[in-house]
Amino acid sequence: MAKRKIGWQTSKIERLSYYLFFAGQLIFNTMVMTYVLTLLLSHGINEVLAGAIILAPKIWDAINDTLFGFIIDKVRFKGGRFLPWIKLSALTLPIATIFLFSVPESMSVTGKCIWIIAGYILWDTSFTISDTPIYALSTSLTSNMDERTTILSLRGVTGAIGGLLASILIPLLYGANGANMGWSVTAMVISAIGFVCMLPVGFLAKERVDSEREEEATFKELFGALIQNKNLFIIILVRFLFLLTYTMQVLNPIFAEYVLGNETINSLLAMLISVPSIVLAVVLPMLCRRFDKARMLLVFMVLYAVTSVAQYFVGYANLGVFLLFTTARAIGYGGFTALIYMFIPDCIEYGQYTTGQRNAGTSFCLISFVSKLNSAIISSLTAFVIAAMGFSATSVTAQGRAGVWVTYTLFAAVGCIIAIPILLKYYKLRDKDVAHIIDCNNGLISKEECEARIARGSK
Predict the structure, then answer these.
(1) pLDDT for position 214
(2) DSSP, res 133
(3) Burial level of 78, CB count in 10 A (0-12/13-18/19+)?
(4) This prediction's pTM
């Protein structure tokens, strides 16, 4: 049996299988979220219609999340509470992905639209079946808080690696400048890799802790938490605005294929964007011990905004310079996405300090809701914007290429530029203050002493 750390309840093989699941899950997520717009354009569907097709299934997404949350609370299997769903998703997610990307060429445009909407709904449902149970499983694997924290931290690294692998492989497989396999065969290859990653945890993990799941938060509770916790509201708003216009990931394959004329370059772009995120996810916890998170977040946001605008004026004629600016933007984006989640526990502590209610579950539920909202909007918004700027995949013109470039650089910075002054003016929590607040919440100091320490620190 694999050796366990002192106090830890899981084996190394269990943890490895858990990490691998997230690598597989992000492989599927990257395939769909990054390339579904490219798929639609390659089938001759215009940009505006493509945006509407991507947005339509998200109505179902809002329903199936709530519905599945109810089902998982009520249904109990002999094989466990979460593991049967995880096993099921390892089968349904590959099937749904292959179906989505196997649109028959002989179909009419209407038929293709119906096929893709049906495939997208099937895929989204399968992803929900995979997502909720795998996160909940961490609470059932072990009751050791340090072990849970480590498991959830490392799953982010392996997930990013899985997404990077997919981003590199897919352009090398489907396009004429790569292996020219086409979408269907590419989906089969990618799905096989994802399946191998996702399957083991269903058979190697063990549900040890039988705890009741927190009750699902209502919309009233979600937005009530925002009203009562101004710092939480600001962090969520800043994240929403930044990602609202972050078009790089969605536009990379389109920019590579239709502007640069070589879709395999997207593999390089994906690597340049993903690697800084992986490295920063590992390094930032150490930097947070020395520097205030809010100031670091501001630095990364300014870096992203400045380099995005500068890249527009520098252009892409010189590939080396273009890749250099892309890497700089990726560092800004990677630092932002890695840091922003670290503010949520601070905001939860602040909420408990000011209202007496911790609302941890509601806070993370709200983050999840806004994340889904961002993902629902960005692909459709990107399609609408490039269409408005004159781009058409069926007849690429100089105006269309210029429109993609503006959307890829200047438009991508708009949300970040709006969010920067909001963060500066309204987010008031600092790490040194949070340390005092935690002591107060844990009963180590009184509220009066906490306020006195915060006041002394602000002078």
Answers:
(1) 47
(2) H
(3) exposed
(4) 0.76
